[in-house]
Structures are given as structure tokens and as C-alpha cells.
Amino acid sequence: MNDTRAQSSFNVFQYLSGSVAGLNINNNGGDVNVTWRGSNTSFFLDEMGIDAETAGTINMNEVAYIKVFRPPFYGGSGGGAGGAIAIYTRKGNDAKSIPGRGLAFKYLEGYTAIKQFYSPNYDNETTATADLRETLYWNPYIITNHLKHKATIEFYNNDVTKKYRIVLCGMNADGKMTWIEKTVE
What we know:
Elements: H1 4-7, H2 12-16, E1 23-28, E2 31-36, E3 39-40, E4 42-45, E5 48-50, H3 52-55, E6 63-69, E7 84-89, E8 164-171, E9 177-184
């Protein structure tokens, strides 16, 4: 929306509050009740019916426009006696990331896609150059056996290592983070 008031509003309800005569927005600790002329108002997001709580979570930076249908609104849930509010979001290149007024913001780069870890295959080749790799094995997807909770890994050693530092980090089935570090000779 190219409305300065919309850009300074955090969500749809803050924007609509005081803008639509007769529309009452009551937010009691997260439980939102929106009525118009004493009846519940219907909400639509990109022409799909949503509840008031969902409508309250929509960031105004994602909104292309809002269309207000005064009561009665035929086609709404509950007979439409409370009117309807249709919210349409930005699409494709229309999407903007406009920070709220007075808020600091920073653009963050996303994560790097996983690349195949290089490990030499000494089964089929011999090389005249020394193997001086520091990281001998790396795998982001080690899945354990569901019965024994064990996994087998195989890797080729480099030409100089006698002692191994093993670091295992991940997540268990309950979502608990795991970090194990051991030295093996």
C-alpha cells in the first residue's frame, strides 16, 4: 500500500482502527474480537476465509490493498451482518520489505546451499601428491539405525594424522541439540 499511515502500522488491525466507522476491534490478551454494528466481521485473505486472529498477524508491508464491505455482506460466514474485510497481499516483484518507522533494520544473506564434500577415493587411484586434508569426513545427514541407534561411517585417512578429533553435532528425535567431541588415537 502506498499509504504512509499503512507503512507506519504494524498490522492490519492497527491500520483499520479508527479508519472504518462502526468497526470495533477488541484485543484481550491475544483473543481478538472484531464486530461491526454488533455482529462478527468476516475476514478474507486473498479471497480465502480466515479468522480474526490470523488477520491480526498480517504485516502491513505484505499488504497490496484492503477492501471493506459494509454490512450486510452476503457470502460471509454467519450471514454477513457484520460486514467483511478482504485483505490482498503483494505478489512476486510487488513484495516489499519496508521497515516500520523508527525501527532499525538490516538485510541478512540466506544460507549457502549444501555442497558435496570432497573425499578422495583411494580404491581406484594412487597419487604422487601428499594428502594433507585437515577435515577427513563431513556429512550433514547421518541417520542412525532406528533399532540400535548406531551409524557406520567410513573415510580415508590423510598422510600425517595419528590422532583424530571427532566432533558430532546434531539433533535427536525430540529436537534436543547434541554436541559430542572426542579425541581418538
